Amino acid sequence: VKNKLCDPSTISFAKGLQARAEGEVKIREAMIELFEWSNSAQLSLTEHVSTVHNGRRTPLIKDWKDLTSELGEKQSLLASLQESSFFKAFQDRGTVYEAKMTLLDYVLHTLNAIQRKWVYLEPIFGRGALPGEKRNFDSVETDFRNIMCKIEQDPRLFSLTEEDIHRNIREQVSTMLMKLELCQKALTSFLEEKRNVMARFY
Hints:
Layout: H1 2-5, H2 8-40, E1 45-49, E2 57-61, H3 64-82, H4 91-126, H5 131-153, H6 169-197
Antiparallel strand pairs: 1-2
Helix pairs in contact: 2-3, 3-4, 4-5, 4-6, 5-6
């Protein structure tokens, strides 16, 4: 038995088992970290008070840099785990996290752009400027405020990936941003036209 235990193939097999056990423990600990973060991460909110809608309040997301940095770190962590030869046992859960974080990355960056444009354009369109584009802006405003009110009710970051709370959010925010860009383009064209007509005034 002693000779068998000292056999190079047995030693190699035992070392392989040990390496696999240690590798899987590290991956399991990292997956637990991802699980705990996905359950605890929340969106920080502030309030926008409208100057044209009788002080109407709209929740807005703040601390974007911290939020996106943390998400990026977790995506990098998962990517490093997926490169491990011991990750196969965790592949199903890893695929779910990967899909959710990819969606979050897109939604957060798009929502950030929407929020910045909405804050800039809301007082302009709220006063009735550019009536030809007002339908687009009003449509975005309704959808944006609905999303933000849902976030206020449930500020968990990963609730953005839950279809029963935010249905088709990827397509929704994509359409919203496109409409806001059309509104901003129309406003820029309008201002350029006024500058050309009244150059001395500007």
